[in-house]
């Protein structure tokens, strides 16, 4: 795996015996019929069907992605990290009428033949996504498009076995991609959910999948001295058990990877925040994710991180080499400018990150520093698989099921009760 790791104050000691035990457990998790996230991208037919769909609609200049939670956060993160072309992306990922108004206004002014609407919902029954479908069909109707023609504008991604969207897909003859039944919504970035937007963003899908495949063996290694998945799990679990640290600040030093923090937030929060353990006993556990990005948040949250309660672990993601850089020399004379003049912007970013890590260490904070050589498809896929694997494994440490989300159901039921009273 080409992610490199440093742990502060120190890497936990993972003996080979412990590694063998934990990898056995991890294999049990990823080989379970309902939790196949670790292997889905090995299914080449998922890649080829997505490429075929892309070919069919590749002339589209506006890609409207409709979905919420895991059906949107992965694609948003991938596109904002690595888009390489001019495709206009619109993410309809909320039901704020004012935002939808702006999005629909934009769409009213573009040629429909330039648009592709990608509706993603694992369950096919999510109210927010179906609401957006209703509004988009109104837009199409107003432009004279009949339901029999929706197939020219829509692609669906949903569970191939059980989903309301399947019924509509059959009725309207919509091209439909698979969200594998055995992969939970928040683990679907490395499936057609992420693949299709990646292709429309001009990303190299083969390199993306290769990155994930190349990480598999290292994540399963029973060498405790090199398996960083196990080290990270031990590090975070013991911080929680011994020091009560259960907040996790996720802070890439990169604007392009800022959305990785939002993707991580759902993965970490929805998977690990649980009322009951696997035996059904009340335990109310979880790790609270905190979104950050450097260097910007040094001027926002870092004061708290340094001097506030020592109740947070920090995951800092570094991009070693940026694709672009700028020298900082200037014709202006100023003391502060002249201190920068012999350096580049990426030198400043690196120095600020290292400076923050050093200061955090002086304040006895706990840090996992992850480095990628560059922000590309290969490394992004490795980050995704690493954090998905870490989440699954932490579920075992916490003795909970990281693949369900019973806590969000009650709110949905009450929302419909309120709706029916309106
Ligand atoms: O893909 P779906 O089924 O529309 O679900 C969207 C999101 O809603 C949840 O089920 C609950 O928040 C998430 O787990 C999921 O990512």
From TrEMBL:
Enzyme class: isomerase
Highest taxon in the source lineage: Bacteria
EC number in record: 5.3.1.9
Keyword Isomerase: yes
InterPro entries reported in the protein's UniProt record: G6P_Isomerase, Phosphoglucose_isomerase_CS, SIS_dom_sf, SIS_PGI_1, SIS_PGI_2
Signal peptide: none
Alphabetic keyword roster: Gluconeogenesis, Glycolysis, Isomerase
Name of protein: Glucose-6-phosphate isomerase
CDD domains according to UniProt: SIS_PGI_1, SIS_PGI_2
Catalytic reactions on record: alpha-D-glucose 6-phosphate = beta-D-fructose 6-phosphate
Keyword Isomerase in record: yes
Record-stated family: Belongs to the GPI family.
Pathways involved: Carbohydrate degradation; glycolysis; D-glyceraldehyde 3-phosphate and glycerone phosphate from D-glucose: step 2/4
